[in-house]
Design a protein that fits this description.
It contains 27 helices and no strands. It is an all-alpha fold and about 600 residues long. The two termini are about 25 Å apart.
């Protein structure tokens, strides 16, 4: 490997270890924004060239750094790792703190050079670094056909997901999954609360499995395998698109590594949630939009692809429908040279979806989600005002008590979970709100003007994790099949203590390793979307690519308005399209760098 590439990797590794040591020492979480700040600072220090120091000065600096790192680790570091249950993890933590602090102190030898550059506003050391490593990083584009890239990538992903499938056989089923299963076997009526289209897909593979095996657990596995194959192919398609966009080896390989090796992707691939195939649909939609952004006039075949994807986007998640509607003006604007064809395509998709959600589902006896389901944020905000015992006028209080019994509001209110209050509404008179929407909108607005801080705090506690990174929530820890009376039970095909412990460690690493931990954080992806959108709409770059980021931003917006809880899987579609989003930004950055050089 080229010396320049090795030097760049060394800078990244040193910055990472410095960040990890400081993160453990200060007790912040791996999702704290400060970890990014630490990493950037020490990476910049690593890029500084400081050849003026003699070997004796460097040796003295190393000795002083070792002494300081040892003293701080001895007196403070030991306390910092007491939170680890395992003695081995405590030892590892001590080593990381000591090594990180040593590198932090030793990096200070470059601080005068950095200050000099900052004061003189000379940042060419960063530009030169990019110039020096540019050819090394780019590499050579894959000499493979498009089909081979997709096929090989999909196969690698599937093989990486396979151990999780064998361990979680026949698949992971939570409460939501069982609700859909109850509809499939006829215990409960069909409902679109969990998209009925997804339930029908599960039903198809389940019945196919029953026809072949006659066993309910084996039949569930038919759907799980189908979902694994679908998601693997979608990952392969994104890898291909990254190859098309970025034009080097590193980009597609990194994208494939993200899809295949980050454990939550494997867990989601074998979990029966609507969020998983919906993410795949968004990935395919992003790839098609990326192709159209790079091409010329939109063809009839492109319109057919978009029609199918827009319909699926709208039917597999309710917020997918709203995100699609929000994106329509932007799609028409950015692809205005094909306005007529796109307008017809979008109109056809909207009409089709409206017909399916309306007359078709009504005729089939499929019930729609109740109005209360969309009120997670506003009912939580009003509940917060009540819980804080704020003064409310008699007229407004009567409007509230006409809907709910406020006797146990203090006990039921959970700041980070809206379902308790929604169930309180359902147990009361939700029809009163539905039949008097204007009146209750007025109530909500009046309380907003009186107690805006209560509203903001209620909103932040409920959905703030979609914009702020340092929120605590589990990711990828779903396991087995929830207890039920239908005979569905987890029957792992592989197991043992080593497998169980290995899976546990892989999942826990997302909460232990800084920078990597941001991959497990919904808020981090939100900011990547924001920065990407700014980059694309700035000077240079293909502005039509902004449609991809706008689609992601629209989905995030629906979560900020109506999500009942902070849940990583709700933003999973944004997560899985991120390798393509980042690749587009890399190209914009590369073009700007080329102009500067």
């Amino acid at each position: 490997m080229h010396d320049l590439m090795i030097n760049e990797l060394k800078n990244v590794l040193v910055a990472f270890i410095c960040t990890w040591g400081l993160q453990l020492l200060t007790g912040i979480t791996v999702r704290n924004p400060l970890t990014i700040v630490y990493f950037v600072i020490f990476w910049i220090l690593g890029c500084c060239k400081d050849g003026e120091r003699s070997n004796s000065v460097r040796a003295i600096t190393a000795v002083v750094s070792l002494a300081l790192a040892g003293l701080i680790t001895l007196f403070i570091g030991r306390e910092a790792v007491l939170g680890f249950d395992s003695g081995l993890f405590r030892l590892i933590g001590i080593v990381i703190i000591f090594t990180g602090l040593f590198l932090v102190f030793y990096s200070m030898i470059k601080l005068p050079a950095l200050i000099k550059n900052v004061l003189s506003r000379d940042f060419t050391f960063l530009l030169n670094n990019r110039k020096a490593t540019k050819k090394t990083v780019e590499g050579k584009v894959f000499e493979l056909s498009d089909i081979m890239v997709v096929a090989i990538s999909a196969l690698i992903c599937f093989l990486c997901y396979l151990p999780y499938f064998l361990y979680e056989y026949p698949g992971i089923m939570t409460a939501d999954s069982l609700v859909q299963y109850e509809q499939i076997i006829g215990v409960t009526p069909w409902s679109n609360h969990h998209p009925v289209v997804h339930t029908l897909v599960i039903s198809f593979f389940y019945r196919l499995g029953m026809a072949i095996t006659g066993d309910i657990n084996n039949s569930i596995s038919f759907y799980t395998v189908a979902q694994m194959i679908f998601m693997s192919v979608c990952c392969g398609r994104v890898v291909l698109q990254v190859k098309k966009v970025i034009g080097n080896v590193a980009g597609p390989v990194l994208a494939l590594a993200f899809f295949a090796l980050v454990p939550f992707n494997a867990v989601f691939a074998v979990t029966l949630w609507k969020d998983v195939p919906f993410a795949g649909i968004v990935m395919l939609t992003g790839c098609v939009l990326s192709d159209l952004a790079a091409g010329g006039k939109i063809k009839i075949g492109d319109c057919l692809k978009l029609f199918v994807l827009f319909v699926l986007l709208s039917l597999f998640r309710s917020n997918g429908w709203y995100a699609f509607i929000l994106c329509i003006p932007f799609i028409l604007y950015f692809f205005r040279e094909s306005f007529a064809r796109l307008a017809i395509t979008i109109a056809a998709a909207v009409i089709f979806v409206v017909m399916v959600k309306g007359p078709v589902m009504e005729g089939a006896g499929v019930t729609q989600p109740d109005f209360t389901e969309s009120l997670s944020v506003p009912v939580q905000q009003v509940a917060r005002v009540l819980v804080n015992d704020r003064k409310i006028s008699d007229e407004d209080m009567k409007l509230i008590t006409d809907v709910i019994d406020t006797t146990y509001i203090h006990e039921l209110y959970a700041p980070d979970f809206a379902d308790n209050i929604k169930e309180l509404v359902r147990a009361g008179h939700p029809e009163v709100i539905e039949n008097n929407k204007g009146t209750y909108l007025g109530l909500w607005l009046r309380l907003l003007t009186k107690y805006p801080l209560d509203y903001i705090r209620a909103w932040f506690d409920l959905v703030g994790g979609y914009v702020y990174t340092d929120f605590s929530y589990a990711v990828g820890d779903a396991d087995g099949i929830m207890a039920n009376g239908y005979g569905l039970v987890p029957t792992p095909l592989i197991g043992g203590k080593a497998v169980i412990k290995g899976k546990e460690i892989l999942i826990k690493l997302g909460g232990f390793v800084p920078i990597y931990g941001m991959l497990w954080c919904a808020g981090a992806y939100t900011w990547l979307v924001i920065f990407s959108l700014i980059a694309v709409l700035g000077k240079g770059g293909n502005k039509r690519c902004a449609v991809i980021m706008i689609l992601q931003a629209a989905m995030i917006a629906t979560l900020l308005i109506a999500a009942p809880v902070i849940d990583f899987r709700y933003e999973y579609a944004v997560v899985m399209l991120m390798p393509l989003t980042v690749s587009i930004c890399v190209i914009i950055n590369r073009e700007k760098t080329a102009k500067e050089l």
